[in-house]
Amino acid sequence: MVIYSFEFEECVLAAYNSEPVECTVHGQLELKELAPDAMFEDIAPNMNIKASDITRGKFLGKGTFGSVFRGELRQESGDPITIAMKMPLNNEVGDEAPPEEAQMAAAAMRALRENPTMALNDAYRTVRQEMAILLPLRHQNIVSLLGYCLNPFCMVLEFAPQGALDRILANYKRAGVRLNAYVMQKCIVQCASALKYLHRHHIIYRDLKSENILVWSFPAPSGPGQLQHQVTIKLADYGISRSAALAGMKGLGGTPGFMAPEIEKYVGKELYTDKVDSFSFGMYIYELVTLHQPFNDLNPAQVKQLIVEGHRPPLTAKDKKAPVFVLDLMAWCWQQEADRRPPSHHISLLSSATEFPRLSDVITFDKQLGINCAVTAGSRVSQSRGADDRASVGSEVWLCRSELNAGIGTGKISVLSYSRARCYHKKEFFVGKSCIRVACSVGSTVWLGTESGTLHVFCAMTYKQLCQGSIRSNRYILNMIHVPRANWVLVALADGSVLAYNDNISNHYHYNDPAVETPVHELLPNRVYTGNGIPIHCMAALPLKKPQGNEPRPEVAGDSSEDSDDRNSPCDEYVCEVWCGQEKGRITILDGEELQKICTKSAEDHEPDSSSQREHSVSHIETCQTTGTTISGDDPVGRSVWVALFPGTRVFRWDALEKKIVRSVDCSQHPPRFEGPAKAKVPVRRGADPNPLSASRAQVNSLLAVDKELYIGTSFGCILVCNNLSLMVYTIIRCHDESVKHLLPLVTTPVVTPHSASEQTKALVLSCGRGYRSLGASLYGHTSYPSRRSGKTFLKSESVVLVWLADVWES
Prior knowledge:
By secondary structure, the protein is an alpha+beta fold. A hairpin with a 5-residue loop joins strand 19 (454-459) and strand 20 (465-470). ATP binds at residue 86.
């Protein structure tokens, strides 16, 4: 019996030339029947595209193997579509190619002429390998294989209209523009989603970098860079990707600077896992942050040595202004030990979090000092007004600090000035010899109240003291607010009384000695509400429409007026109310002009003095502030008051006009995103509460209503972001290790660059709490990964100030 055989290389050459194979006995044979694998019929039946249906266009670039050209594919309908043709036998390069690349391309073309069979078989193996990877993949962020052609020998792929991502980044760098935080997030999320999909199918990509990511849509450097701008990218070039066994794989592959230490150190001869792609992902984030490749000024040997020794590419001061969580994830991904890097599904999970692009700044303070109170200084940006008629918030924050052992020490002020969502200046000074307990912004001044009963007034621009006064009793100061419609600064005391001071400090200058022309700057109250003996812990003011018809006048609850100045009462149709939160769950509502009692309400709509209210205190009362358009009293937001109690986990929205609760939200029903059932396996220390939703952990500790959102800070270190009318929760962020004590609004001035349109005023929210908690802390224990901004790990006991971008949470 005689068996006739054919060399496989001969079959590949015949397929390329579209020639039959000749048998001495049977004559010409159909190659499709004889060797279907030589024509890819075994893995891609019905995907062979006729040469007559393809038209090659201009050169696009050089890939890992061969060149990529733009082309057109004629469909069955006769209409052409634009395609990308990846041609392994064509080694053309562009005119701008570096000399080394041009020399390599010339050598490859010379090898093809001298030994076409070998070159063709090398190309065949490369194409077959990549097709075997691509064929089963179906993902929105992975380039689709449309088919293949045997002559010209090429793979036909989706066409990316904007080319490779590295060129987009180069355009941004030339324009002097950095990626928008939200655009950066979309680039990370989409690439992480593709990588997670590959790893789920046991494929290690091995060459992740911006050069291998193709772009369908992307904002131009000169565009507005809005949050809604569409970004579509897809992972391409699977020439060195491999299917991996569960134990891992071996083999050298990748680009210097992007290859993990375990590949570089052992030259691919030792087993490694898909964590090598996590390392490359960290370098990919580095490209997005810096707009250039890592170690781009070093040769491959130098890069290898640095990577193996644990060094990472440097970050400039401008690079460190990227979103904090982006830098944290980058540093986490490029950890030296593979088992300390996050898997791709965790990268995808963390980067898709709403808060991922929003944390823009982190500032820590000495653990010995606590932040007692904080206030945003008066606006220098816009004159829009909030529901309480105060001017729009500004770009400076006054943090009032003291020793945690409150019996000793002095009051210390830290003024943080913000621009482009980051602190650029910090001013510190001391005030008196007593702890500062309350602070209030009044136009271009800041009023401070101390534990010893002293009031200080400082200029918000020069930081110099303008005036001071003492409360002539041993009554403890609990709260202070500005009521611009009545020209009052109201000071609430522990005995339930309220002192009203004129907000124009020039009215507090007195000439005690006629022979002395210099006035004495002493604060004296103009009016007093004597109260009911129940401490007032919080206050809020808002204008409401005046009662119509012959409605009864407010009940007088006590008025020992010392008013001697001629103030202009408002002549419009609105009247000012002051809501006072007290112990026993009471809300006392006062007329803001005369400080007369209007009525008393139960904070939870129970009967006043009911047994369920006696153990509760109204701890927070807020009206809505604004960073943009002035809030009208006719707007539902303008007549809303948000109330929280201690102890308590709920926040209530009151309609101030109808004096009733219309909505509420319970923080205990909204756990943080990464604190789910999976964490139940983690041992809980003795004495700790194992339930993250318990009342002790969901206690409301801070409250802020600004624009369309309500921010709620809890004792578990969480911030709940809600719609301020419906109280629908958009997201829950656990960013501090312990309680979120303060939430403040901020704005930064618009910035205009030669290459970009004018930016809008940027709305921010500042949170003050204990410790910093990175996104990965909930998944990998409580050790916060060090931020690349500071290079150090934060401690639980440190006071930490975080600044968040606060635009369009509901998206």
